[in-house]
Design a protein that fits this description.
Strand content: 5-15%
Helix content: 40-55%
Structural class: alpha+beta
Strand order of the largest sheet: 2-4-5-7-6
Number of strands: 9
Largest sheet: 5 strands, mixed
Radius of gyration: 37 Å
Distance between the termini: 119 Å
Number of helices: 6
Length: 324
C-alpha cells in the first residue's frame, strides 16, 4: 500500500521560495535601515563640518584683520623710529662736531679741565648714538627689514678689526684682552661679515662692562668639522643661571631693576642672537660645568658661545671641499 505524503513536491518548493523571499525582504529592510542610519550620520557630520568651516572662515577673517592692524602698527612704529632717529641724530652729530672743534682749539685755547669736560660730553654723545642705533636695529629685525649677505668670512680678520675697536675701552679699566684662535687659516665662516663684527663688538663690550677693573676678557675660536665655535668669556660677576634665557629678551639685562649698576638698553644680546640665527647659527650661554679648561684659568664670569657654519666651497667638479 502506498504511503500518503502530507505535502506534494510543488507545495514544498513553494514554501521554500516563500521563506527565501521573506528572508530577502528582511535583509533588504536591514540594509535600508543601515543606509538610513549612515545617511543620518553623514548629514550630521556634514552639518558639523559646515559649522567648523564657517568658524574657520570667521577666524581667518579676524586673523587677517589683526595682521593688517599689526602691519599698520609696524609701519607707524617704523616711521616714528626713522623720524626720531633723524631728529635725534642730527643734534647729536652737531654736538659731536662742535666738541671736536673745541678740542682742536679752533675756537681758542682750551684748559686741561675744559678738555676733560669735552671728552665727557663726547662719551655721552657716543653713548646716546649707540642707544639710538640699537633701537633702530632691533626695530628693523622685528620688521624683517634687515638684509644679510652669505659670504666667505675669514674669522681672524674680523676678530683683528673688532679687537682694535674694543681694546681702548678695556685699557681704560686696566683690563686685558686675550685672543686665542686655533689654526686661524681654517677659521672660515659662511656669514655676513658686518653683522658678525657687530655681534662680536656687542659680546666683548658686555664682557668689558660686567668685568671689574684689572680683569680679563678672552675670545677663543676653533673649528670642528663643518662648524666654527667662538667663545667670549670674562672674569666678571657672571649671569645667574635662572636668567640665561631672559637676558636674550629685548630690554633685559643680567641685573635688572631701576638700581641696576650698568647702563645700556638691554638690546645687545637680543640683537646678537637674532643676527646669529639669521646666519644659520646659534648663540647660547655656557654653564659653569661645561667650561672646561677656561674655568681653571679663572674665567668664571659670563661665557657666551657662538656656533656658525664653516665656509665650504664648491670645487670645479661640483664636489664639496673645505677651504684651506
Amino acid at each position: 500500500t502506498a504511503i500518503a505524503m502530507p505535502f506534494t513536491v510543488p507545495k514544498v518548493i513553494g514554501t521554500v521560495r516563500e521563506a527565501a523571499l521573506a528572508r530577502d525582504r528582511e535583509l533588504r529592510a536591514a540594509r535600508t535601515d543601515a543606509l538610513e542610519m549612515q545617511n543620518a550620520r553623514l548629514t550630521t557630520l556634514t552639518d558639523e563640518l559646515s559649522t567648523v568651516n564657517a568658524q574657520l572662515r570667521e577666524a581667518l577673517a579676524v586673523a587677517e584683520q589683526e595682521r593688517a592692524r599689526a602691519d599698520a602698527a609696524n609701519r607707524v612704529k617704523g616711521d616714528f623710529l626713522r623720524t626720531m632717529s633723524h631728529e635725534l641724530r642730527t643734534p647729536l652729530n652737531a654736538i659731536g662736531g662742535y666738541v671736536e672743534l673745541l678740542d682742536l682749539e679752533i675756537r681758542g685755547p682750551v684748559t686741561e679741565a675744559q678738555r676733560n669736560d669735552l671728552h665727557r660730553i663726547r662719551r655721552a654723545q657716543l653713548h646716546l648714538l649707540g642707544i639710538i642705533t640699537d633701537i633702530l636695529t632691533y626695530a628693523r629685525i622685528e620688521a624683517g627689514a634687515l638684509e644679510y649677505r652669505s659670504e666667505r668670512v675669514p674669522l681672524a680678520s674680523v676678530v683683528e678689526d673688532v679687537a682694535g675697536l674694543i681694546r681702548p675701552q678695556l685699557a681704560a679699566k686696566g683690563q686685558e684682552l686675550l685672543m686665542e684662535l686655533e689654526q686661524p687659516e681654517d677659521l672660515l665662516i659662511r656669514a655676513d661679515a658686518t653683522k658678525l663684527s657687530q655681534v662680536l663688538v656687542n659680546l666683548l663690550s658686555n664682557a668689558h662692562k660686567y668685568t671689574p677693573s684689572g680683569g680679563r676678557v678672552i675670545l677663543r675660536a676653533e673649528r670642528h668639522d663643518d662648524r666654527v665655535f667662538v667663545r667670549v668669556a670674562d672674569t666678571g660677576s657672571g649671569i645667574p643661571r635662572d636668567r640665561h634665557e631672559a637676558v636674550f629678551e629685548p630690554f633685559v639685562q643680567a641685573v635688572g631693576g631701576l638700581a641696576r649698576p650698568f647702563d645700556g638698553t638691554g638690546l645687545g644680546l637680543a640683537i646678537s642672537r637674532d643676527m646669529i640665527r639669521a646666519m644659520r647659527g646659534e648663540l647660547v650661554i655656557v654653564d659653569q660645568e661645561a667650561r672646561g679648561e677656561l674655568a681653571t684659568r679663572g674665567f668664571h664670569g659670563a661665557m657666551l658661545l657662538i656656533d656658525l657654519p664653516a665656509f665650504i666651497a664648491e670645487s670645479s667638479t661640483g664636489a664639496r671641499h673645505r677651504e684651506q
